[in-house]
Amino acid sequence: MTVSSDVKTCVASLKSAQASLEQFALSTENQDAKTIYTNAAETTQQVLQQLESRVQQLENEEPQYKGF
Fold first, then answer.
1. Which of 4, 35, 51, 54 is at 20 to 30 A from 43, Cα to Cα?
2. Could you name the domain of life of the organism this protein comes from (predicted)?
């Protein structure tokens, strides 16, 4: 695997984890747990933004990997 495909796989996994955290936040009635899940989802979103920026860099450096 290439670095680009590894990073894209990581992005997909993080998006799944973020969706799960958001779902947990919606499904719990415990306010402390809701806050923890929401904060974790927001942190995950920040990491995703950084990784997606890196994907763009990789695709610009290696255009043959664009879209994979």
1. 4
2. Bacteria
